[in-house]
């Protein structure tokens, strides 16, 4: 198939279809250029794919022509073309390609017709700013000419498709002034601001909602002879809106705006669950697969980015849920639990496309069998390298095994997913502490990854914090995981009363573990209030369910041996009050004078922070808190061939962040060893694309967030897993709550009028005038790198030739008041993109 033809999105029955759906490739001629396109597809699509611009406002690459609705009523008539041998003009958006056609898209008659059409469109749309001599750089909040607000253009002026098309077509002097009709302006509903005064009746939103998505919550309305598109009921929710954002995405004006999007990071804020995931998992895709009951397919999507779906499905701190757009409507989707359900019901379908390259003969040493180290070794083994993991403890898993209690992640889940690493040929050397990287290099290892975590616990920093039975969190949790608490040879005895100092997720793990180890009274002591606690709400609820006492605005001052009491220790506490906000943004706890009191306890656990332990023999540069310093793009340390990642770099962070850094390091190490550095893989055995149809009856309007099944509170005195996950029915219902934000993100961008850029070369610059003006430098993707006003355009551009390596194109305009014009253009750019041209770790979640 012709390459150009593959790039076209073709229209059929309102659903994008492959070019093969149409007839064979045929040749037509457009403006003297021979173009190949499938017979039966639209001339507008063929022209767009061939780089020939034809203006259109009622058409969109991913929609059937809206002018076909209502007997042609609502057509913009901008895409008119002439066909040799056929009288009159034809709308190219609905004109089918036929072999041998000769199309003309630009003649004086067509130009006049387009100006007449744009004049009619602007007659029903505020447009006074379009012809204003001071329009560039204007804030759109005040008007030098005193034009009423309702006649001015809106805040998206600089990126408005209607404005760009009008500029291209040309606005005739006969364009009638806009007469306000006072259509509805709705700013108080979820997600979208709707100003129907800006609607031009192009009907793209109508087609997107009713025909492509199958929701059907929009209809054509008429007010005082003016037609516009609105909801079928007074509100979006009453109309059955699914908030998929398709209507907003295809709107060519500011009539439909999503207030939750950041214009400078549109892609990230449009699908924030995927953008927020450190590993870049395609979250909407696997959530929607779970909704279809396709658990193995969903797991394959997750495994494209990480090797531990069962572990992460239980213990990921799920930033995707915090970012989920559904929170603007009611509650976010329970994404983590859906991942867990898929992993627990996986049949191994992902193995069919999983590949391991032949051995390369290159050897890599990985220090630490935690999430970062295991991930690094996994992907290096898939690239054919011989990876050996050195682990100081008796088994693999790192903090997953020795820092997260088994009631959250069962040992058999850890063993099963670690076994997948071992199956690739990764070697493990347990009970082996590495003291020197030089010794590893002497064994023939050509590269080393350091993933030793942050297993040193921070002390309380008060008198008595080194007494017997005053322990740090990692020491206690590791001893508990190995069955070394309360045994005859143990240094840690739980006793009847336990005080856990801290308010994060690690503190909750210590509290709930202490309950299981026999603590009759377990107190979580936190110096702020419940509102400031960084622990996840579900972890806090788990503490409450299991009888932990949450005590706020309390802080220990000193710990002493209790010589005469029934308990081993005596803790002196002080009551606290909240003062001014500190660097974390939370109010600083301040001791209340004269509020000290004493309590007897048997065990004190400090869960206030962790740090990396000594690695003096590694010969790498470390920074604050002993964290190894690395290059963010490659995880390379200060020593050649030595990489690091996970908590030893981040400090005590999260499993998913450690996995993400392991992926990044594996790619960099592969490149260091002579590979291509590409560890990406596709594991879904068949091409599965999101169905563009949503429909009206899919359970979406279930607002209640479904919660996983938990074992009863009175059954939690052992280490059995507390959360049992979703059943199939609740999982499907929860997955159907997904807004399918990826649907709008996957829509093709509208083809906009061509820009007047030139290739940035010495020859092109030499032809530029020597007048004053402003020039812009652009990179290969047409992103603006620089906007600069100069007294002499040729000299100013010449200075930049060879200096700015990313500059590929440039634009210039003459402007005697070049400083003022530069300021106007900078303001316009900032307004549109939220940043200047060229672009201009917090541990609290754990402790």
Key attributes of the depicted protein:
847 residues; alpha/beta; 5-stranded mixed beta sheet; 5-stranded parallel beta sheet; disordered N terminus
Describe the secondary-structure layout.
Elements: H1 3-6, E1 25-30, E2 33-38, H2 43-49, E3 80-83, E4 89-91, E5 102-104, H3 108-122, H4 161-169, E6 185-186, E7 192-195, H5 204-212, E8 218-223, E9 226-231, H6 236-239, H7 246-250, E10 256-258, H8 266-270, H9 272-276, H10 283-291, H11 295-303, H12 309-315, H13 319-323, H14 335-344, E11 363-367, H15 371-382, E12 386-390, H16 399-402, H17 411-423, E13 427-429, H18 437-442, E14 447-450, E15 456-457, E16 470-472, H19 473-481, E17 497-501, H20 505-516, E18 521-525, H21 537-545, E19 549-551, E20 554-561, E21 569-581, E22 587-591, E23 597-601, E24 603-606, E25 610-611, E26 642-644, H22 647-650, H23 655-672, E27 709-710, E28 723-725, H24 728-735, H25 742-745, E29 758-759, H26 762-766, E30 773-778, E31 784-790, H27 793-800, E32 809-814, H28 818-833
Oligomer: single chain
Q: Sheet with the most strands?
A: 5 strands, mixed
Cα distance, first to last residue?
Answer: 58 Å
> What is the tally of beta strands?
32
Strand order across the biggest sheet?
2-1-5-3-4
What does the overall shape look like? elongated
Class of secondary structure makeup:
alpha/beta
Radius of gyration: 32 Å
The helix content is: 25-40%
Low-confidence stretches: 1-20, 840-844
Strand content: 15-25%
Number of helices: 28
| Average pLDDT score | 89
């Amino acid at each position: 198939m012709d390459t150009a033809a593959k790039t076209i999105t073709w229209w059929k029955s309102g659903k994008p279809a492959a070019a093969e759906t149409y007839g064979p490739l045929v040749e037509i001629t457009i403006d003297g250029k021979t173009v190949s396109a499938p017979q039966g597809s639209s001339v507008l699509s063929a022209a767009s794919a061939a780089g020939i611009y034809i203006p259109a406002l009622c058409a969109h690459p991913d929609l059937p022509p809206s002018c076909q609705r209502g007997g042609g009523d609502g057509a913009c008539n901008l895409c008119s073309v002439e066909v040799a041998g056929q009288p009159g003009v034809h709308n190219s958006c609905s004109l089918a390609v036929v072999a041998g056609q000769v199309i003309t898209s630009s003649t004086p008659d067509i130009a006049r017709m387009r100006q007449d059409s744009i004049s009619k469109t602007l007659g029903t749309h505020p447009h006074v700013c379009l012809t204003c001599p001071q329009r560039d750089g204007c804030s759109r909040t005040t008007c030098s000419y005193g034009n009423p607000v309702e006649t001015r253009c809106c805040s998206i002026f600089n990126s408005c498709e209607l404005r760009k098309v009008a500029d291209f077509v040309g606005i005739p002097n006969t364009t009638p002034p806009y007469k306000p009709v006072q259509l509805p302006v709705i700013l108080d509903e979820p997600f979208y601001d709707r100003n129907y005064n800006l609607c031009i009746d192009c009907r793209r939103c109508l087609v997107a909602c009713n025909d492509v998505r199958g929701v059907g919550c929009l209809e054509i309305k008429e007010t005082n002879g003016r037609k516009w598109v609105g909801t079928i009921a007074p509100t979006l929710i009453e109309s059955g809106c699914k908030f998929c954002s398709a209507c907003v995405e295809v709107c060519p004006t500011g009539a439909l705006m999503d207030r939750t999007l950041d214009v400078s990071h549109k892609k990230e804020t449009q699908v924030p669950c995927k953008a927020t995931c450190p590993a870049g998992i395609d979250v909407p895709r696997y959530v929607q697969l779970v909704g279809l009951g396709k658990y193995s397919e969903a797991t394959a999507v997750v495994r494209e980015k990480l090797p531990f779906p069962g572990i992460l499905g239980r213990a990921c701190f799920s930033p995707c849920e915090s970012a989920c757009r559904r929170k603007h409507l009611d509650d976010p989707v329970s994404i983590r639990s859906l991942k867990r359900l898929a992993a627990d019901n996986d049949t191994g379908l992902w193995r069919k496309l999983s590949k391991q390259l032949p051995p390369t003969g290159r050897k890599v040493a990985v220090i630490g069998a935690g999430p970062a180290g295991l991930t690094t070794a996994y992907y290096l083994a898939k690239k054919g390298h011989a990876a050996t993991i050195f682990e100081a403890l008796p088994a693999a898993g790192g903090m997953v095994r020795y820092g997260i209690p088994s009631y959250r992640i069962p040992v058999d889940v850890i063993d099963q997913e670690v076994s997948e690493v071992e199956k690739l040929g990764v070697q493990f050397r347990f009970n082996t502490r590495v003291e020197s990287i030089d010794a590893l290099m002497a064994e023939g290892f050509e590269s080393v990854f350091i993933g030793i975590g942050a297993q040193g616990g921070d002390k309380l920093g008060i008198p008595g914090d080194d007494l017997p039975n005053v322990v740090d969190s990692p020491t206690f949790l590791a001893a508990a995981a190995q069955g070394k608490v309360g045994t005859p040879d143990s240094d840690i005895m739980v006793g009847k009363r336990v005080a856990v100092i801290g308010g994060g997720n690690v503190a909750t793990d210590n509290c709930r573990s202490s309950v299981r180890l026999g603590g009759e009274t377990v107190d979580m002591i936190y110096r702020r209030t419940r509102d400031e606690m960084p622990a996840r709400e579900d972890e806090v609820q788990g503490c409450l369910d299991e009888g932990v006492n949450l005590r706020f605005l309390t802080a220990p001052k000193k710990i002493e041996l209790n010589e005469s009491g029934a308990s081993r220790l005596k803790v002196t506490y002080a009551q606290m009050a909240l003062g001014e906000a500190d660097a974390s943004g939370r109010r600083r706890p301040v001791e209340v004078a004269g509020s000290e009191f004493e309590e007897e306890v048997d065990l004190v656990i400090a869960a206030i922070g962790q740090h990396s332990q000594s690695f003096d023999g590694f010969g790498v540069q470390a920074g604050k808190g002993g964290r190894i310093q690395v290059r963010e793009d490659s995880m390379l340390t200060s020593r050649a061939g030595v990489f690091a990642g996970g908590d030893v770099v981040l400090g005590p962070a999260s499993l998913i962040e450690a996995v993400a850094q392991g992926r990044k390091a594996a790619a960099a190490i592969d490149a260091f060893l002579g590979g291509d550095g590409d560890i990406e893989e596709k594991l879904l055995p068949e091409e599965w694309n999101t169905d563009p149809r949503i429909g009206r009856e899919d359970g979406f309007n279930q607002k209640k967030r479904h919660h996983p099944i938990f074992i009863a509170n009175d059954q939690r005195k052992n280490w059995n897993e507390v959360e049992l996950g979703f059943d199939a029915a609740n999982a499907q219902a929860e997955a159907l709550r997904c807004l399918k934000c990826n649907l709008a993100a996957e829509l093709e961008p509208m083809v906009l009028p061509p820009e007047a850029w030139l290739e940035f070369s010495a020859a092109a610059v030499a032809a530029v005038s020597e007048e004053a003006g402003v020039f812009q430098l652009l990179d290969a993707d047409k992103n603006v790198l620089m906007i600069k006003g100069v007294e002499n355009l040729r000299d100013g551009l010449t200075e930049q030739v060879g200096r700015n390596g990313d500059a590929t194109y440039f634009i210039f305009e003459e402007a005697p008041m070049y400083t003022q014009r530069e300021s106007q253009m900078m303001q316009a750019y900032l307004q549109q993109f939220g940043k200047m041209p060229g672009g201009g770790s917090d541990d609290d979640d754990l402790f």
